[in-house]
Automatic annotation (TrEMBL):
Pfam families: Metallophos, PPP5. Belongs to the PPP phosphatase family. PP-5 (PP-T) subfamily. The gene is EOG090X03S1. The active site is at residue 286. GO terms for cellular component: cytoplasm; nucleus; plasma membrane. Keywords: Acetylation, Cell membrane, Cytoplasm, Hydrolase, Magnesium, Manganese, Membrane, Metal-binding, Nucleus, Protein phosphatase, Repeat, TPR repeat. The lineage of its organism: Eukaryota, Metazoa, Ecdysozoa, Arthropoda, Crustacea. It comes from the Eukaryota. This is Serine/threonine-protein phosphatase 5. It is found in: Cell membrane; Cytoplasm; Nucleus. The keyword Transport does not apply.
Amino acid sequence: MEQNMNLEKADALKEEANECFKKQNYVKAITLYSNAIECNPTSAVLYANRSFAYLRTECFGYALEDASKAISLDKTYVKGYYRRAASYMALGKTKLALKDYETVFKARPNDKDAKLKFNECNKIVRQQAFERAIAVDTVKKSVAESINVDSMTIDGTYTGPHLVNGKVTLQFMQELMDAYKDQKKLHRKYAFQILLDVAELFKAQPSLIDVTIPEESKFTVCGDIHGQFYDLMNIFKLNGLPSIENPFLFNGDFVDRGSFSVECIFTLLGFKLLYPNHFFMARGNHESQTMNQMYGFEGEVKSKYSSQMAELFTEVYNWLPLCHCLNQRVLVMHGGLFSRDGVTLDDIRTTDRNRQPPEEGIMCELLWSDPQPMKGRSPSKRGVGIQFGPDVTTRFLEHNHLDYVIRSHEVKSDGYEEAHDGKCITVFSAPNYCDTMGNKGAFITMKGKDMKPHFTTYDAVPHPDVKPMAYANSMMSLFG
Ligand SMILES: [Mn+2]
């Protein structure tokens, strides 16, 4: 009798959760599915549905766990394999995804969508195998070396901004941003020139950059931008344009998701060239090849320029610094802290970063980790990096004589969050993320004399009618 009551309750909770999911309120849906699972822990459907909601919130590690659980509860439940395939895809584990898509396709040979996904995934797996095969014998030649900017000509129909003797000026930056607001393009000659110059600049930088903020000066830290160019312009409207007197640090994830990633990245790289010692950029987990292939940046660069330029971006991103230390008191990284105690700033300084982010270790964790409210460490909800508790933060700060940590990487409804007793601050600067999350954006300002963080929050501004993920891999349409 009690069992039946629970089943009924589980069903009612599931219906309520499904409604929330439809309204794109994924966080509430996850809570309701979890409550339903408590009432009926043997339902494969509930786990598969929660897995889908986790996919939408980018908790790919949890999504994978739930999909696997659904399969273990009911090996004939096709949706479970579907969800697990999607989770594997999101984590870049394409071979494992293919196996699950094959199971789905075999179970439903007449399902058009199943066939499409299986074929798409198969194509990606074969493409990757091909790329690996050519990479084995050939010493990888730098794309930068094969580009000849001098040979590129500009014809009279081009009305956009011009570099002055090959250099970025303030006037160039103003004209560039105006051109972008009108949805115009920067000429490829100048785009390549900026990429080549900024690659040289980043190459000369260490993996951890020490920044000095004078007593009376203001310094601004921004979080994820994710291709939301019009919101980036709003940050400059609210906080002033970057300058020597108005220095900025952008803390990674400049691109992907939003469909104005090209506009964002050239604006940021332009300011880096204009103010190399007062404008800073750190690498995020989205400044990587696999993420760019799946979440839109590569497709956008190929559409607006060429695949050669997409390859050059991969080289430039490999040289982005991993971490910034402000006045020897505040450490800023995209993701978070480490799977072991005792990591020092020197360990970060000596990290060889010119590569794609590895699956573990200091570089991986700097880019991927998240804080958690519980003490200690746990596996990541994302399936990459770790989750670290307040005690981990405290020990890290004491060991390295720091005041607090700023990181980004997670959407927050207020645009920022102070966790771990104020010692671990999240800042996220993409308001209404993916046009759906309804969150505010935020940035942090501080004065050199006290390094106290001040928060400015703001709402999304309108953008032209190009949806987020417009250039993303078609497999990723699964996650909206
Ligand atoms: Mn991120």
